[in-house]
Amino acid sequence: MVNSWVVPATVSAAAILAFVVWRWGGVRRMPGIVYVAHTGVLRSSRRYRTRVAQLRFAVAGIAACAALAVFSAAVIVARPSHEKVSSQRLASRDIVLCLDVSGSVIGFDSKVLATFSKMVRKFEGERVGLVIFNSSARVVFPLTDDYDMIQKELESAVSALDSGRGSSSREFSDLIAGTVNGKGSSLIGDGLVSCTHSFDYKEKDRSRTILFATDNELLGTPLFQLDEACALAKKRRIRVYGLLIDDRGYGGYRGSSGKDAPGEFSSEIGKIGGTVYEAKDSEAGERIVKKVQAQDEAELAGDVDVSIVDEPRCWPAFALVGVLGIIGLAWKFRLS
User: Fold this and answer.
1) Do the beta carbons of residue 88 and residue 306 sit within 8 Å?
2) 242: nearest Cα among 257, 252, 255
3) What's the whole-number average pLDDT of the chain?
4) For 51-55, 129-133, 193-197, 301-305, which range has the lowest pLDDT when averaged over its residues?
5) Measured between alpha carbons, how far is 291 from 308 in angstroms, rounded to an integer?
6) How many CB atoms are closer than 10 A to CB 212?
7) In whole angstroms, what is the distance from residue 75 CA to residue 7 CA?
8) What is the mean pLDDT of residues 322-326?
9) In the chain, what percentage of residues exceed pLDDT 70?
């Protein structure tokens, strides 16, 4: 964005000045100058013509450099800029990726993390954290907006899951360390409750979201049932979006309440305003990101900051080139 009147005004002034110089800046007879006749032989000599050609080149070059410097200066004075629209609140989003790493889903978890990785690439300012759970939960990395670190951690986790697959590989063991300290396996409700504790700045008004990936197959006695965990998330104003891991494709297994696990999972997440997606759906991550961002924008609409940011780009360099060109040509051809 440039002030519309500055460039035309400067160019017009330069054109008027050039016309005045051309019209009234001709050679004037000055006292003490002797005009020599019969110089045709001199003017026809090769050296004279070469010198005149050089001077004409120098004058043309200086004129071009002056035009470049003047125009660049005009653009700089006009202060080219652009509007930057930002919202501190829209950037105040915290998203915890909550991943079940129990034996029933371990073979599919690397695909879920790959989906998480694609989602992170679409984030702009959000803080992201990763928590994994089985009979107990472990924070792989806390909430952060260091996306390079997040991508490295996710890639490392994918590599560990692919290489381990439940085996005794060191990389896999390091990843799931701390997730089998409880009684039983795949304690769904306890895992979700642990993820709700991963949010800091509880006193601040921030957008908080959990992306909850599990097959909801309970094997043990949790402290919290899924419905209780969902109610706690709602009480803490945390949105929950589910990624249902059902790579078997037939369901039929039981959730925390003894009901059909996929149906129960969708029902309980839906009761608190969340949505459940199929983890094997390649578009699920993008849909979740769009839904989270759209909901936040609707809730926080109008709370934006508009600032004008100067954007001189290459014009100062062009102005410098023009000035240096004038100085260099004038010195080279002694035009003083």
Assistant:
1) no
2) 255
3) 77
4) 301-305
5) 30
6) 29
7) 6
8) 85
9) 74
Instruction: Give me 321's structure tokens.
Output: 């080139």
Tokens matching residue 224 = 């919290």
Q: What is the pLDDT of residue 336?
A: 46
Instruction: Provide the residue count of the chain.
Output: 336
Q: How far is 296 from 287, CA to CA, in rounded Å?
A: 14
Scored b (16 or more CB within 10 A) or e, 288-297 reads: bbebbbeebe
Q: Given pLDDT bands bounded at 50, 70 and 90, which one contains residue 89?
A: low
Q: What is d(CA 120, CA 79) in angstroms, rounded to the nearest whole number?
A: 36
Sheet with 239-244, strands from edge to edge, namely 137-144, 127-133, 93-100, 207-214, 239-244, 276-278
* Range scoring the smallest mean pLDDT among 99-108, 135-144, 256-265: 256-265
**CA triple 296-198-237, angle to 5 deg:** 40
pLDDT at 107 > cutoff 60: yes
In DSSP terms, 207 is beta-bridged to 93
Query: What pairs with residue 260 in β-bridges?
Result: 254
Instruction: Collapse the DSSP code of 141 into the 3-class scheme (helix H, G, I; strand E, B; otherwise coil) and give the result.
Output: strand
The owner of tokens 């991550």 is 285
Determine the angle formed by the axes of helices 315-332 and 46-77, rounding to 10 degrees.
160
| Torsion region of 164: left, alpha or beta (phi above 0 gives left; psi -120 to 50 gives alpha) | alpha
Beta bridge partners of 242: 212, 276
Residues 7 and 315 sit within 8 Å (Cβ to Cβ) = no
Please tell me what DSSP assigns to residue 83. E
Express each pLDDT in 289-307 by its tens digit.
677 666 655 455 545 566 6
Which residues have C-beta within 8 Å of that of residue 114, sequence separation ≥ 6? 158
Q: What is the DSSP string of 169-229?
A: -HHHHHHHTTSS-SSSB--HHHHHHHHHTT---TTS--EEEEEEEE----BS--SS-HHHH
Average pLDDT over residues 146-159: 89
